[in-house]
Amino acid sequence: MRDINEIDNIKRLFSQIDKSDKEDFFEKVAEEFDMVKSSVRSGWFSRFEIPMKYNVRKHLIVYMQNYISRKAKKSNKGGI
After folding, report:
1. Which among 2, 55, 60, 61 is least buried, having the fewest CB atoms inside 10 angstroms?
2. pTM above 0.85, yes or no
3. What value, to the nearest 5°, has the Cα angle with vertex 15 and ends 10 and 17?
4. What count of other Cβ atoms lies within 10 Å of the Cβ of residue 3?
5. What does the alpha-carbon distance between residue 13 and residue 34 come to, in Å, rounded to a whole number?
6. Can you tell me whether residue 33 is helix, strand or coil?
7. Are the C-beta atoms of residues 27 and 37 closer than 8 Å to each other?
């Protein structure tokens, strides 16, 4: 059951990333996890096939939360 909750959490976070930021996000995730950007885009975020190995999902959730938070802070500064 925990595995499904992690994937649901990742999907929820992914839906919060603005469409205009997706390519940047894929690139940053690929760098963070030492992967090819196309693999991240097509495997991880198209089919949501994220490995359970080595706590990748937990690390990804934290990374996504931080990414979203940084983007929100940047957009708030621009709007002031």
Report:
1. 2
2. yes
3. 100
4. 10
5. 21
6. coil
7. yes
Sign of CA dihedral 74, 63, 61, 24: positive
Summarised one tens digit per residue, pLDDT across range 18-28 is 999 999 999 99
Backbone angles phi, psi at 52, to 5 degrees: -85, -20
Q: Which residues contact 51 (CB under 8 A, 6 or more apart)?
A: 57
CA distances from 29 to 14, 74, 77 (A): 12, 19, 24
- Residue 40's Cβ-count burial label (10 Å; 0-12, 13-18, 19+) is buried
- The pLDDT of residue 54 is 82
